[in-house]
């Protein structure tokens, strides 16, 4: 038979131009079932085969797909959108959609809902249906050769009511014309089947993760989720618990940190939270964004912490901090040694809004290795009240270390930096146990108080299994007693971890 479905699973599309006559699919129907029945009838007449279409409305199809309480029985919805004047519609149906392989797979794994949009009235009807069920989904109804389309629909939790969830739906465009959207390849029977399997697996993982999330909540309580999210980024939380975690975070207004958000994340994930929940932004040098993305992020006016990873360019640091003028905390993280010259020069660009400044690195480049770095005209960071210098990230010995000849080299260098923070109230240094003896120089700590008139507390946190010996304890006590006699009455604390 001329139009008999091809049985070879690897056949691609052919370039004939046979379409379902639009006159067989009238614009007006007495109910939601009639157009589906008419479309199934047309398929059987032309292709002698048809997948099992759901006889009802799209919302009823979605409800039927996700009504089971057993996760393994849930199925995504596949919307097939047909246009009789597209050269690809007949080719796709004959060679792929009405093949035995696809029909059998869809029968077991999907609920399929069709819609013919050859006539404008039907296109308008579909647009209204999608706006009601899938407000984020936009269908390009103008380019005929963008048809047929396959739209996959999965379930998401939209809001929480007491101990239950209100569910909604999220769609993903799988096929447009003769191109698979995710991989941007020309469709054939084999890769269409692979794409259907991929989306089905994605939906199964979504449902399983949601079930896992509910089990955690049932066993450990709702607060357990919030305690976990406190220590990870929102990106990691969504990966661990799926987007079904978002209603719970929104309801409790849980503060979150986001990392390298791409356009999809900014436009689909963040709008499901309240703007004030996004309080921290973490960026790496791999992050790429447009001006539009940055402007969209800037609308989250509660982003008070900006963490930058391995940014060597001061001007780039300045650009990002200027996009977020409300930033109060600036944290710089490095996987290699930090050069004090970088920190010196950065003070010229720091916004006055920044109150807390943190540097996390495994080591530092001793400034005395380059005499030109020792005499630098510095700009003051007059608003910084808290400074953390953290050397706990895989501690390294400093480059060109001169502490053997000059034991207080590092302490002198760090205080030379601190003297340009006259408003400093709290200073914390995290280091390893080998450094502690070189940090107990009373004269240098007294010098620090002369620069920082508002200094309230100094904390040295020492890593490694170590207890202070008698000599060390005596030095610590001497520093504590001496600082109490000064006008600031600053506390000096050493913590051994």
From TrEMBL:
Annotated ranges, domain UAS: 38-174
Q: What InterPro entries does the database record attribute to this sequence?
A: FAF1_2-like_UAS (IPR049483), Thioredoxin-like_sf (IPR036249), UAS (IPR006577)
Gene3D superfamilies cross-referenced by the UniProt entry: Glutaredoxin
Would you say which domain of life the source belongs to?
Eukaryota
Q: What is this protein called?
A: UAS domain-containing protein
């Amino acid at each position: 038979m001329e139009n008999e479905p091809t049985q070879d699973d690897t056949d691609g599309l052919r370039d004939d131009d046979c379409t379902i006559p639009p006159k067989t699919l009238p614009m007006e129907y007495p109910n939601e079932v009639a157009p589906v029945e008419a479309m199934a009838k047309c398929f059987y007449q032309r292709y002698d085969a048809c997948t099992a279409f759901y006889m009802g409305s799209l919302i009823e199809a979605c409800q039927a797909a996700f009504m089971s309480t057993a996760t393994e029985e849930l199925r995504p919805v596949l919307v097939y959108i047909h246009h009789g004047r597209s050269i690809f519609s007949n080719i796709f149906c004959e060679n792929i959609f009405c093949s035995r392989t696809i029909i059998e797979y869809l029968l077991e794994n999907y609920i399929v809902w069709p819609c013919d949009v050859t006539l404008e009235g039907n296109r308008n009807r579909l647009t209204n249906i999608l706006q009601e069920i899938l407000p984020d989904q936009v269908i390009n109804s103008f380019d005929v050769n963008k048809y047929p389309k396959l739209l996959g629909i999965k379930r998401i939790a939209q809001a929480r009511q007491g101990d239950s969830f209100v569910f909604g739906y999220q769609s993903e465009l799988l096929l447009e014309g003769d191109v698979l959207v995710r991989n941007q390849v020309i469709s054939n029977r084999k890769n269409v089947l692979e794409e259907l399997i991929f989306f089905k697996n994605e939906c199964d993982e979504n449902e399983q993760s949601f079930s896992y999330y509910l089990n955690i909540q049932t066993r450990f309580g709702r607060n357990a989720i919030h305690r976990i999210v406190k220590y990870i980024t929102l990106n990691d939380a969504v990966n661990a618990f799926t987007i079904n975690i978002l209603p719970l975070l929104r309801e409790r207004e849980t503060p979150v940190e986001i990392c390298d958000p791409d356009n999809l994340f900014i436009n689909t994930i963040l709008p499901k939270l309240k703007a004030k929940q996004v309080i921290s932004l973490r960026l790496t040098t791999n992050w790429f964004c447009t001006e539009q993305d940055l402007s969209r992020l800037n609308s989250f006016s509660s982003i008070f912490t900006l963490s930058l990873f391995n940014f060597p360019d001061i001007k780039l640091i300045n650009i990002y901090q200027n996009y977020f003028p409300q930033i109060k905390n600036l944290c710089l993280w490095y996987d290699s040694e930090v050069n004090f010259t970088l920190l010196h020069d950065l003070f010229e660009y720091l916004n006055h809004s920044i109150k807390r400044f943190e540097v996390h690195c495994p080591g530092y480049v001793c400034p005395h290795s380059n005499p030109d770095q020792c005499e630098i005209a510095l700009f003051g960071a007059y608003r910084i009240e808290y400074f953390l210098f953290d050397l706990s990230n895989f501690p390294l010995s400093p480059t060109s270390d001169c502490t053997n000849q000059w034991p207080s080299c590092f302490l002198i260098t760090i205080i030379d930096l601190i003297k340009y923070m006259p408003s400093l109230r709290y200073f914390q240094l995290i280091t390893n146990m080998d450094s502690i003896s070189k940090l107990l120089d009373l004269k240098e700590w007294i010098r620090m108080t002369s620069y920082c008139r508002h200094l309230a507390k100094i904390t040295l946190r020492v890593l490694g299994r170590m207890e202070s010996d008698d000599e060390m304890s005596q030095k610590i006590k001497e520093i504590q007693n001496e600082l109490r006699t000064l006008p600031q009455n600053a506390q000096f604390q050493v913590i051994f971890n």
